[in-house]
Write a structure and sequence with these properties.
By secondary structure, the protein is of the alpha/beta class. The chain has a domain at about 70-335: Glycoside hydrolase/deacetylase (TIM Barrel). Helix content is about 30%, strand content about 20%. The protein is built from nine helices and 17 strands. Strands 4, 7, 8, 9, 10 and 13 form a six-stranded parallel beta sheet that branches. It has a five-stranded antiparallel beta sheet with strand order 14-3-15-16-17, with helices on one face. Strands 1-2 form a two-stranded antiparallel sheet. Strand 1 and strand 2 form a beta hairpin. The chain is globular and about 65 Å long.
């Protein structure tokens, strides 16, 4: 070995010992200058990630499918009483409870008048629509609130509410056409009666028993001039808003709508009266949305969907809800089409609000026999579908918007 090489090896050995660095062959930690040598800390083992990546669920849109044009009978009640027999305008509560049961067993379900007029004609598969209406509100036999805040069982809406609690799938939707200037309501002073009535109206609106216009004093519009027609409608609308303000519920005013039921089904006969009615604008600036007449079941006429060719919002039919009307609906239920249902998809969720994309999927499923031909109703669109094409015929309106 050369001398220079020996010197270098000797120097490195001395330097190693002075720094206290163990040699690579040491089996235990050595010490330097009386202090323990640094101990190396092992790196922690990686922890396995047990969190599963969520599986993307298929996305579907459920549509009601009408293979033939649907129609919703509007049953219009007036007063209620305890004992039988029922009359053409006053129904006993026992008869009313039986009527609801018979309709339920015949496959009918309650639907919202506003939703139907907005184009939303969806009902569960295998069911038929019926719309409940009431004129001349508010009488105490129609609705009175119990201490628990719900309608008493000895009133019309109390019977309907109790039935809904037992059969929630039947639904609870009412259209109440009110005369707020022709009768008192409740007990006590006039001020106390007004508060009772206001609380009743609040309960109704909060539970989808919506309040509309039947004129202030239940006048015969056939013989009323234009100024009188406007006054009757305006007074009733203003009184409704005053009652809501009385109990500090102005927040409900945006939910009101401008719809009128003709007292006795009598439309104005003079041109100025007709202009006043069909051109009426409510205190919130809403144009007239619908005008309803009334008739007996001897001339049955049911509400068509708004996309139907003969739909006329200025002359919409209602039927007096006497025993004969209910019997007719039950006995002739097969004449009223039932709803079908179709799950459209799987879809790309981000495109499900695109009517063109949704229409393409409906056409594919129709052509492949997965869903029937007919009118498809979703929460946003109405399509007409056959084996050759799918056409968008209406966008469902936001009925909750003014």
């Amino acid at each position: 070995m050369r001398p220079n090489t020996l010197y270098i090896i000797t120097f490195l050995a001395i330097l190693t010992l002075s720094l206290g660095v163990p040699t690579s062959t040491s089996k235990s930690a050595g010490t330097t200058q009386g202090q323990p040598a640094p101990t190396s800390t092992p790196s922690p083992s990686p922890v396995p990630n047990d969190t599963a990546v969520p599986t993307q669920l298929p996305y579907y849109v459920v549509a009601t499918v009408w293979e033939s044009q649907p129609a919703a009978p509007i049953l219009t009640y007036h007063k209620f009483k305890t004992n039988r027999p029922s009359t053409y305008s006053t129904v006993s509560r026992l008869d009313f409870a039986e009527e609801l049961e018979n309709l339920y067993q015949s496959g009918y379900v309650s639907v919202s008048l506003e939703q139907w007029l907005a184009g939303d004609t969806r009902v569960p598969a295998g069911k038929r629509p019926v719309i409940f209406s009431m004129d001349d509100a508010f009488f105490r036999n129609q609705i009175t609130l119990a201490p628990d805040g719900n309608p008493t069982k000895d009133t019309g809406l109390g019977v309907a509410w109790e039935f809904f609690q037992k059969h929630p799938e039947f639904g609870f939707h009412w259209a109440l056409f009110s005369n707020l200037g022709d009768k008192p309501y409740g007990e006590g002073s006039h001020a106390e009666q007004q508060i009772q009535l206001a609380n009743v109206i609040v309960w109704c609106i909060e539970h989808d028993a919506m309040v509309y216009n039947h004129t202030f004093g239940h006048v015969n519009l056939k013989n009323t001039n234009g100024l009188g027609v406007t006054a009757e409608l305006r007074w009733n609308d203003e009184q409704l808003r005053k009652l809501l303000a009385l109990v500090h519920r102005e927040d409900l005013i945006p939910r009101l709508r401008n719809m009128v039921a003709l007292p006795g089904g009598r439309a104005p006969r003079w041109s100025d009266s007709q202009t006043a009615l069909y051109g009426y604008i409510d205190p919130d600036g809403r144009k007239i949305q619908a005008v309803f007449n009334i008739d007996y079941i001897t001339r049955p006429d049911f509400l068509k969907p708004p996309y139907a060719p003969k739909f006329n919002p200025s002359n919409l039919p209602r039927m007096v809800a006497n025993l004969k009307a209910i019997d007719y609906l039950v006995e002739n239920k097969e004449k009223n089409p039932i709803a079908q249902s179709c799950e459209i998809g799987p879809l790309i969720e981000s495109q499900s609000d695109d009517p063109d994309y949704l229409g393409e999927q409906i056409l594919y499923m129709t052509q492949n026999g997965q869903c029937p031909q007919g009118v498809y109703v979703t929460d946003k669109f109405v399509f007409s579908a056959n084996m050759e094409q799918v056409e968008l015929i209406q966008r469902v309106e936001e009925s909750s918007q003014p």
